Amino acid sequence: xxxxxxxxxxxxxxxxxxxxxxxxxxxxxxxxxxxxxxxxxxxxxxxxxxxxxxxxxxxxxxxxxxxxxxxxxxxxxxxxxxxxxxxxxxxxxxxxxxxxxxxxxxxxxxxxxxxxxxxxxxxxxxxxxxxxxxxxxxxxxxxxxxxxxxxxxxxxxxxxxxxxxxxxxxxxxxxxxxxxxxxxxxxxxxxxxxxxxxxxxxxxxxxxxxxxxxxxxxxxxxxxxxxxxxxx
Length: 232
Fold this sequence. Notes:
This protein is mainly α. Helices cover 65% and strands 2% of the residues. The chain contains twelve helices and two strands. The chain has helices at residues 12-31, 48-54, 59-71, 88-101, 107-114, 122-138, 140-157, 161-172, 181-184, 186-193, 197-210, 216-230, and strands at residues 75-76, 79-80. A hairpin with a 2-residue loop joins strand 1 (75-76) and strand 2 (79-80). The N and C termini lie far apart (112 Å). The relative contact order is 0.06.
């Protein structure tokens, strides 16, 4: 067995060279930029047929998994992509796909109206609100809450009273019997907010006279609003 040489036998110059190499390696690693993964753009959605095949004939499961993927897409490689940098035409197409796969689902329109529509980009917000309005028309009975929220976004975030009125009138004219009266009355309050007091008074008076409002508390509230509107 060969004898082990003590550390003292190592030439001092070699020790110094080793220390310099270690210091250079530490400095080199410190100077390197933090590793970053490549951020990917949102791809266009596949066909419903392909998703059905990939989900083994269970479109509802495919839609739910797809929504989870889409919701997490803005977080990649440890970085968070601003929502306003996403291509909202593709976001809209993905949400439409999920609704086609699972028409009873509420989450796609919830995400559209309360997540994607609340970005600091008015054009993208409008895209999402238009998606909500379009999909509401396909199933008003289930999708009215998201159009009611669209009225709020249009009025208070976008400051677009005309757009808020269009959505409110779409709610008011819907035939679904389960839409609550307060949602169908939003057009009256938007008109009042726009300064169209006479139109609001006509709609409110007609609603009270029609007998559609059976709840006494609701009738009392609306009657009081009409009295206030008629004050000079």
